[in-house]
């Protein structure tokens, strides 16, 4: 998977305490996880890539459509999209 996530983010995710989230704005998610670059709407492929990346760091990922941000959470639940 070709992602452009800064190395520091992986370290942050690995050290997150349980039930603590890292919130990432939609435009940053699109930049980090999509070949399409910045757009107003995050593409499904970027959300899938973010979910895969989160799992590789021991986290889960969800996307809050209303808040237009991704949430990386140290927990052991499944990927979800918040409406």
Folded structure, characterized:
This protein is of the alpha+beta class and 83 residues long. The chain has one domain (7-82). The chain contains three helices and four strands. It has a four-stranded mixed beta sheet. Strand 2 (60-64) and strand 3 (69-73) form a beta hairpin. Helix 2 packs across helix 3. The protein is globular. The N and C termini lie far apart (27 Å).
What distinguishing features does this structure have?
83 residues
Radius of gyration: 12 Å
| Strand residues, percent | 15-25%
What proportion of the residues is helical, as a percent range? 25-40%
- Main sheet: which strands, in order across? 1-3-2-4
Query: What is the string of helix and strand elements?
Result: HEHHEEE
N-end to C-end Cα span: 27 Å
Shape: globular
Number of strands: 4
Structural class, from secondary structure content? alpha+beta
Number of helices: 3
Number of structural domains: 1
| Low-confidence segments | none
Question: TL;DR?
Answer:
By secondary structure, the protein is of the alpha+beta class.
Secondary structure blueprint with pairings:
Blueprint (H helix, E strand, L loop, with lengths): L6 H9 L5 E5 H8 L10 H13 L3 E5 L4 E5 L6 E3 L1
Parallel strand pairs: 2-4
Antiparallel strand pairs: 1-3, 2-3
Helix pairs in contact: 2-3
């Amino acid at each position: 998977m070709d992602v452009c996530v800064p190395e520091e983010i992986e370290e942050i995710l690995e050290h997150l305490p349980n039930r603590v989230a890292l919130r990432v704005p939609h435009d940053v998610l699109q930049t980090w996880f999509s070949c399409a670059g910045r757009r107003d709407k995050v593409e499904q492929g970027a959300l899938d890539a973010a979910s895969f990346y989160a799992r590789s760091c021991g986290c889960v990922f969800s996307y809050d459509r209303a808040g237009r941000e991704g949430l990386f959470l140290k927990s052991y639940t499944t990927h979800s999209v918040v409406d």
